């Protein structure tokens, strides 16, 4: 017969395994984001598409991992006799653990995941800024080759509506 302590330990181990997988996924996404930055700088579109497919695989695995984390959290809550909350955070789960060593390990993994998530967020923001700069450059190059069209050629405007006064900013100074 399985005791409550053994059942709790099993649930805890399953949760830790899922969280370690999260760590691997984050590291894979970070590596992908770093590669993406290099490809953006070099304007390698074909490789970017391949990288996006790989990134989507990581994200699908992340989604699957989230389901497993919720299942492990529910099982852990059930085994320690707590009210089940599928959306319980790692901080919530630390509070219900009776073993201080387990709570500390969970806290350390939580901190590591937070650091990895921040690193990924920062990389994605830099990549987004690179993409925006590339788009400005592309528009400016096009404008310098074929001339800058009137603002009304960019967007449909209701002739009866008042002008918004918003103009597209150019990254190149066309004054001579």
TrEMBL record:
Coiled-coil portions: 99-133
A GO BP annotation: bacterial-type flagellum assembly
Keywords, alphabetical: Bacterial flagellum biogenesis, Coiled coil
SUPFAM superfamilies: FlgN-like
Annotated Pfam families: FlgN (PF05130)
UniProt key word Coiled coil: yes
Alphabetical list of InterPro entries matching this protein: FlgN-like, FlgN-like_sf
Taxonomy, superkingdom: Bacteria
Name of this chain's protein: FlgN protein
Natural source organism: Insulibacter thermoxylanivorax
